[in-house]
C-alpha cells in the first residue's frame, strides 16, 4: 500500500530534486574536466565541510586557535600526498598547463596524525572550555573527513595517470598493441582506443556517485512511498528497511548499468585493467585472480549502498549527539556539505582501498 504524501513531503521532495539538478550541473563538469576544476571544487567543499565540523557543537564553542589547528591539519591530511606527488623528482608538475593531475597512492602521515592528537589534547589540558570530548570529536571526525576527501581525489586522479607503479617495467601481453607495461597500461589502452584519457579517467568517480546517490534517491522515494519499518529510529527516524532495499536495488542497477554501457558500448571500462567486466591482462600479469575482474566490480557495486548507509548513520549519530538537524544549509533540501557527501566520503575510502590493493596485486606489503 502506497503511503499518503503530505504537502510538506511534496515540498521537500521538489526542493531536493531542484537542488540535486543544480548541484549536478556544477559538479559533473568539474569531474569531467578533472585537473584544476576538480581540484578547486574539492578545496571549496573541504573548507565548507571543515567549517560545518567546527560549527556542529555550537557556533561559538571553539576558539580561533582550535579552528586554525583543525583547518591546517585536516587540509594537510587531504592534500599532503597530492603535494608530494607534485614535488617528486620524477613526477610531472601539474602546475604546468600541459600536465595532468595524478595520484598513485592514498596516504596520511602517522607523524601528522600523532601531532594532531597531541596538539588537541594539549589544548584540552590547558583550556578548561575545550574538553576531552571536544578533542576526541575533532580528531576522529576530522581524520575521517580528510580520508574521505583524499579518497575522492584518488578516485578521480588515479586513472588519469599512465599506469600502475607496482611492477612498473613488467611487460603486459595485450592483443591491441606492443611494448605495453604495467607502468604505461592506462595511457596505452586509451591511446589504442582513441579515447580522451583526461575525460575517460572520470568514469570510476561517476560510477561511485551513481552507486552512492542512486542508493540515496532510491531509498528516499521508496521510503516515502512504501516505508513502514524503521531501520534505526534512535539515530535516523526517517530511514526504513523498505527504503534501504529499494535504494540497494536502484544503486546496483545504476552503477553496474553505467559500467556496462561504458565498457561494452564505448569500449571504455571504468579503470582499464583494474575495474572492468572483461578479463584483464594487467591483473593476469600481476598474478591477481588470474586476470578475472568482474568480482571486484560487482563486489564494489554491492558494497556501495551498504557502506554508504554506514556513513550516513555515522554522521547522523554525530548530529543527534549535538541536537542539530543538518550540518549546514548550503544545499536547500539536502543540508550542508557533510549531509550531502557523508555516504560519498565513506564509499570513496572503501573503493580507493580496493582499487589500490588490486592495482598492487593484493600485495599488502606494498
Explain how this protein is built.
This protein is an all-alpha fold and 366 residues long. It has helices at residues 7-33, 35-55, 64-87, 110-126, 132-157, 185-193, 197-200, 203-226, 241-266, 281-286, 294-322, 337-359; strands at residues 230-232, 236-240. Strand 1 and strand 2 (236-240) form a beta hairpin. The protein is globular. Mean pLDDT is 89; it is low at 89-98.
Please report the distance between the alpha carbons of the first and last residues: 54 Å
What's the total count of β strands?
2
Put simply, the count of helices is 12
Give unreliable regions as ranges: 89-98
What is the 3D shape? globular
Oligomeric state of this protein: single chain
Average pLDDT metric: 89
- Rg over CA atoms: 21 Å
Order of helices and strands: HHHHHHHHEEHHHH
Main sheet overview: 2 strands, antiparallel
Please state roughly what percent of the residues sit in beta strands, choosing from under 5%, 5-15%, 15-25%, 25-35%, 35-45% or over 45%: under 5%
- Helix/strand/pairing class, anyone? mainly alpha
Widest beta sheet: strand line-up:
1-2
